[in-house]
Automatic annotation (TrEMBL):
It comes from [Kitasatospora] papulosa. InterPro entries: CdaR-like_regulators, PucR_C-HTH_dom, PucR_C-HTH_sf, PucR_dom. Residues 8-126 form the Purine catabolism PurC-like domain. This is PucR family transcriptional regulator. It holds the Pfam family PucR. Residues 459-517 form the PucR C-terminal helix-turn-helix domain. PANTHER family: CARBOHYDRATE DIACID REGULATOR, DNA-BINDING TRANSCRIPTIONAL ACTIVATOR ADER. The lineage of its organism: Bacteria, Bacillati, Actinomycetota, Actinomycetes, Kitasatosporales.
Length: 525
């Protein structure tokens, strides 16, 4: 705490006596300054204890004293220290009355106490307070650094920061959503500030703003995170009053640590993207088993369930960057795995079918499409997306073609996003009733049907289950009630009998159509 008038009065060596404004002694003192000018206000900054002997003042005149004191009070002077025994043996009543009327503390300084002693006492107290603040700030830095190095995420760091500022703290992602908050109840309070965070995101980093929360009456400082062209998130710190020196050290340390963590995450993300690019290349080449081996734990879960392939294009890099950040934020909040591969103006994404990342992409597209025609389109909104139907690892090359077709349709229609289902509206099933199609299907499947008729397995049903599950071994095996190794053996037998590879997307398509044709034919008889 900085020195106050009360602490100076309690200083035993100064022997100060309160003559007016006893109820205002808690006022902080920023400095002690001696001046005998009739009007020292132009040289004051506010918060000073003004030391005077009234050499150039008629301190006995009530009007003069009233104007003098009112000017000082209006300038934010902390109080007046009047030295007696120099010009006046005691403080004139006119000055006492004027100080009481203005509510300005008035202290009597005895002749044996030099003004220099008061100045030294004030400066010493200020230096001690600053030392305590700096020491506390360094200790806060050490605590926050330990929390950041521990690698347990931002929660512990925010908890320590909130304790240091005697308030609350929250971390936002690049989309403006609350990632973590401390204490837990602060999450709802932080969510109300999302619009302010979004406005801060549009300013070059580093950026900050102070806002007020009308419901909690908190003073909230928002600090951007990141040092690049685009902010990578924001930190909110809510307190009941302005931050002191120690608290300011803690906030600045938190911003630096969170920015470094964000940069480290970006570097890690770059490595993940390179791995993801290798996985995607293998999938597009039909090497699904190799892709699974390379994917490991990082992307393996994504490949174990139906996913969508998205292709996004934008003439401005910021367009695909913003879409990527939007999808990343949604996936992070829901714990989804996302495979993203940026390639110049393009962005290719594998995302879980029906997941939050796909929903976030669709919402982003709706926002862009709902923008009034007369409203100018910002560069980061000029993005076009094509999305495939749900698929599995063995069908990625087909999904890529679907996404390309959907992207082309989106461009022609002036839409932000088009799904493959919209391109393929309608059904080809009625076409499968054609005699020529049925003859093709019977010819293609006959070797498998003859095999099954001899009681040596259920190759046709196994093939249907495997294709319907997009090549997902565990899911298809569960549908059939057999072990996945049994299913793998049956698919190898299918390849041997037909003399064709199931890794070929055209073969899979022909077999699926043949199965559909035989089903339609059986249903029609």
């Amino acid at each position: 705490m900085p020195p106050t008038l009360a602490s100076l009065v309690q200083h035993s060596a100064l022997k100060l006596t309160v003559r007016a404004g006893a109820d205002r002694l808690g006022t902080p003192v920023r400095w002690a300054h001696a001046s005998e000018l009739a009007d020292p206000v132009p040289y004051m900054e506010g918060g000073e204890l003004l030391l005077v002997t009234a050499t150039n003042l008629d301190a006995r005149d009530p009007g003069t004293m009233r104007r003098y004191v009112q000017r000082l009070a209006g300038a934010g002077v902390a109080g007046i220290g009047f030295g007696v025994g120099v010009t006046y043996e005691e403080i004139p009543p006119a000055l006492v009355d004027a100080a009481e009327e203005a509510g300005l503390p008035l202290l009597e300084v005895p002749r044996r106490t030099p003004f220099l002693a008061i100045s030294k006492a004030v400066s010493g107290a200020i230096a001690a307070d600053q030392y305590r603040s700096v020491t506390a700030g360094f200790e806060a830095q050490r605590e926050l650094t330990r929390a950041a190095v521990a690698g347990d995420g931002p929660a512990d760091l925010l908890t320590r920061l909130a304790a240091n500022v005697d308030g609350w703290a929250a971390l936002y992602d690049s989309a403006g959503a609350v990632v973590a908050a401390a204490p837990d109840w602060a999450a709802r309070r932080a969510a109300r500030l999302t619009p302010e965070v979004e406005r801060l995101r549009d300013r070059p980093a580093p950026a900050s703003v102070v806002v007020g929360d009308s419901e909690s009456h908190d003073r909230v400082e928002l600090q951007s995170l990141g040092a690049g062209r685009r902010n990578r998130g924001a930190l909110a710190v809510g307190t009941g009053a302005a931050l002191g020196t120690a608290e300011r050290y803690a906030v600045h340390s938190a911003v630096a640590l969170l920015t470094l963590t964000t940069a480290r995450s970006r570097a890690l993300q770059g490595a993940e993207q390179r791995l993801g690019a290798a996985v995607l290349r293998m999938l597009l080449a039909g090497e699904s088993d190799h892709a699974r081996a390379v994917a490991g734990d990082l992307y393996g879960g994504l490949l174990d369930a139906p996913f969508r392939l998205l292709i996004a294009e934008s003439p401005a890099a910021s367009g695909t960057e913003l879409l990527a950040e939007t999808m990343e934020a949604a996936a992070s909040r829901s714990g989804e795995t996302l495979l993203m591969v940026p390639e110049g103006e393009r962005l290719m994404v594998l995302a879980a079918d029906g997941g939050h990342a796909v929903d976030a992409c669709a919402a982003h597209a709706r926002t862009a499409d709902d923008r009034p025609v007369r409203e100018p389109v910002p560069d980061d909104a000029d993005v076009v997306v094509g999305m495939s139907a749900p698929c599995g690892p063995i069908a990625v090359s087909a999904a890529y073609k679907q996404a390309e077709q959907a992207l082309s349709v989106a461009r022609r229609r002036g839409r932000t996003m088009v799904e493959h289902e919209e391109v393929a509206a309608g059904s080809v099933l009625p076409l499968l009733a054609d005699d020529a199609v049925r003859a093709f299907a019977d010819g293609m499947l006959r070797p498998l049907q003859e095999h099954d008729a001899k009681g040596r397995g259920d190759l046709v049903d196994s093939l249907r289950a495997w294709l319907s599950r997009h090549g997902q071994w565990d899911a298809a095996a569960a549908d059939l009630g057999v072990h996945r190794h049994t299913l793998r053996y049956r698919m190898r037998r299918v390849e041997e009998i037909l003399g064709r590879s199931l890794d070929d997307p055209d073969v899979r398509m022909e077999l699926w159509l043949a199965l559909k044709a035989t089903s339609a034919s059986a249903g029609g008889r």
